[in-house]
Design brief:
Two copies of one chain form a homodimer. Chain A is an alpha/beta fold. Helix content of chain A is 33%, strand content 18%. A nine-stranded mixed beta sheet of chain A has the order 3-2-4-7-1-8-11-10-9, sandwiched between helices. In chain A, strand 5 and strand 6 form a beta hairpin. In chain A, helix 1 crosses helix 3 and helix 4 packs across helix 13. The longest helix of chain A is centred in the first third of the chain and has 16 residues. Chain A is globular. In chain A, 64% of the residues are buried. The model of chain A has no long low-confidence stretch (mean pLDDT 96). Chains A and B meet through helix 3, strand 3, helix 4, strand 8 and helix 9 of A and helix 3, strand 3, helix 4, strand 8 and helix 9 of B.
């Protein structure tokens, strides 16, 4: 497969955007990515989205958004892998451009979750769990994660408050990100006193949903050769992998091991020729704080059961050993589910370009993003690198 | 992109399968394709499906079906392009294996439309139309096609009965296809007397929905070199293209021209190095008989407004100039929407292998399939050829 680069990024603010339709938000992100890339057109559009059919009564999103964004007639399709839909769209765009079949593609993630007042978004999100064997028992997504977190606390002897640094870091990093949903710092006391959602998960363990769209434009690296030495850094795609696990959590031998994260991360490291020590930042899928811990462990940044130590010892902040959620993560940037995977990629690009604002990392050259669909069921890892 | 071949196919009968779940039907098709290919595993699964989130309350189908089919841990994703979801999944599988990123993939189409008694399937299907500008006016899919057919009859002066040969041919060809939904020959009189659905479309202009799953396994052609000279013919992928048009029919300047069909077909011909005269069979998207006419014209088999002449003059039957719907088409094999595109491919493979039964074409070497999402909104064309 030929080498690829990300030429443009576009994001809309994650928010409750009752006044802006799905197609409007999606088109805004697409047009921003084109503008950022200095392009007027693109060969294909891959749309990552989970809920439009359920919440907006609209399928055929690929064609709809291509048309609405002024890209009528191009190849376009929608991709769904639950909350991993965004990165899934990127991975398909990568293989499409990488194959030589097309010369450019936009991977868009979009989710419109505040579409109809009174819509049961929790039930809609539960469609990412097993509809025959999990949801009939009343298991929501937060309940599934609560079961996993409870098991983790029991196995490894941590207290709930040991997870506080993950959420505190995410909120601090979102403060100056204009696209973030939440702009408020939190303290350990706030975390301890937060309202319980599904024990042991409280409100400050959980990421907020929202509306949002983010897009990235992919081109062959060789098309950018002439840019060397001028302008902003070229961000290349160094690794792209996907793996799955059982959809139902109860089918796993060990619920505190994200085997699909371990598998996709180790293959991404091999593709990029790097080890976890080489990663300058990691945009992980902190839908719930327990997922932060499990991702860090599965990807080799901590031993099994030891990830909370990274937070407690101050290694996850900008400037730390492995900065995570550098622009807020799912916890504070927000989690418009099918869009999240592309927000993560756009944020890694911002860091590698030196365009990340107050939480800019010094000299970041290699960044990783990992997007998760279901409770660890579909896991997609990308490694980006400055060329 | 490297050259590819279809090594295995699998189909389930299109039917009202109340007793068989979505995952069971999907897995059956996947396992049949693996068995047909003589393989036990595959690198990735691309699932084409439109309605599982709406009718079955189940998303994350890629991961679910990979696990259920015994392929736990492989890369898997769902793809949606309305009724074109099946071919969209195939096209993504082609680019993925073609890129060299993976060495084999299954493209699966699956749809479970008889999931809940009383479910409003017509409303669910209308999600392939524009939810802001078409469906609020009460336009169902059959109504949209009726508007287009009425315009066509007015523009070109045909009578409704001039479309009868399309449906008669489809029903005749399905008689001995064990996977077809309908096994009953129809006459011109049956066609004329059929119950009206949305004038001028009557029941025998319209394809029946149903449950079904079909799968094809893709590998690099070079992996099959050693098979030359023995066993059944190798079926290579000679062309694969996709194009879009406006989602809303009213946004088109000319509603009787399928511009996305013309665009994707002409590029597929160029890829394969053929002309319409070289095509031995054409599995087209006859969801409604008007679509048969428009597809034949857009793809160069008839002049604008002249396609009914092909039927009236006996050119579309097996043995005719351009045989269509050789195993029943959508009209009689049935139209489990997201699965249809893969049924079409499996049928072309059957014809090219000489495994098509009583409607086997003599010496067929090049076959085309075209799958449509929405009312001509997303159109995907594949050309297969015996190597």
């Amino acid at each position: 497969m030929r080498e690829l680069a990300i030429l443009g990024i576009g994001q809309t603010p994650v928010a409750e955007s009752w006044e802006t339709s799905l197609r409007e938000q999606a088109s805004e992100a697409v047009l921003k990515a084109l503008q950022d890339a200095g392009r007027e057109g693109v060969d294909a559009l891959f749309v990552g989205n989970m809920l439009s059919g359920i919440l907006s009564h609209q399928e055929a999103l690929g064609t709809l958004i291509a048309d609405w964004a002024g890209l009528r007639h191009i190849e376009a399709v929608k991709v769904e892998a639950a909350c991993g839909s965004g990165a899934a769209a990127l991975r398909l765009a990568i293989m499409a451009v990488g194959s030589g079949e097309i010369d450019s593609a936009i991977a868009l993630g979009v989710e419109k979750m505040t579409e109809m007042k009174g819509a049961d978004t929790t039930a809609a999100l539960a469609e990412a769990a097993d509809a025959d064997y999990e949801t009939p028992h009343g298991l929501s997504f937060v309940a599934l994660n609560a079961l996993v977190m409870r098991r983790y606390l029991y196995e490894y002897g941590w207290k709930h408050t040991d997870f506080a640094p993950f959420s505190i870091n995410a909120h601090a990093n979102a403060l100056h990100n204009p696209y973030a949903r939440l702009h408020e710092a939190i303290t350990e006391k706030d975390y301890q006193n937060a309202r319980m959602v599904a024990e042991p998960i409280n409100l400050l363990d959980a990421s907020p949903i929202g509306d949002g769209a983010a897009a990235v434009l992919i081109v062959p690296l060789e098309h950018l050769r002439h840019r060397n030495g001028k302008g902003r850094p070229v961000v290349a795609i160094a690794g792209s992998t996907a793996a799955t696990d059982t959809l139902a959590v109860h089918d796993r031998k060990d619920v505190t091991l994200l085997s699909a994260a371990a598998s996709s991360a180790s293959r991404a490291y091999a593709q990029a020729g790097v080890t976890p020590q080489d990663i300058d930042l990691f945009e992980l899928h902190d839908a719930f704080s327990i997922m932060t811990a499990l991702s860090l462990e599965a990807c080799g940044f901590a031993e099994r059961g030891q990830a909370p130590r990274l937070g407690l010892d101050g290694h996850i902040h900008p400037g730390g050993r492995i900065p995570i959620c550098t622009l807020g993560g799912l916890k504070a940037r927000g989690h418009p589910v099918g869009a999240t995977g592309i927000y993560q990629i756009a944020e890694v690009v911002q860091q590698l370009r030196g365009e990340a604002g107050p939480t800019q990392l010094d000299g970041a050259r290699i960044g990783m993003a990992q997007n998760i669909g279901g409770s660890g069921a579909t896991i997609i890892t990308h490694i980006l690198r400055v060329k």
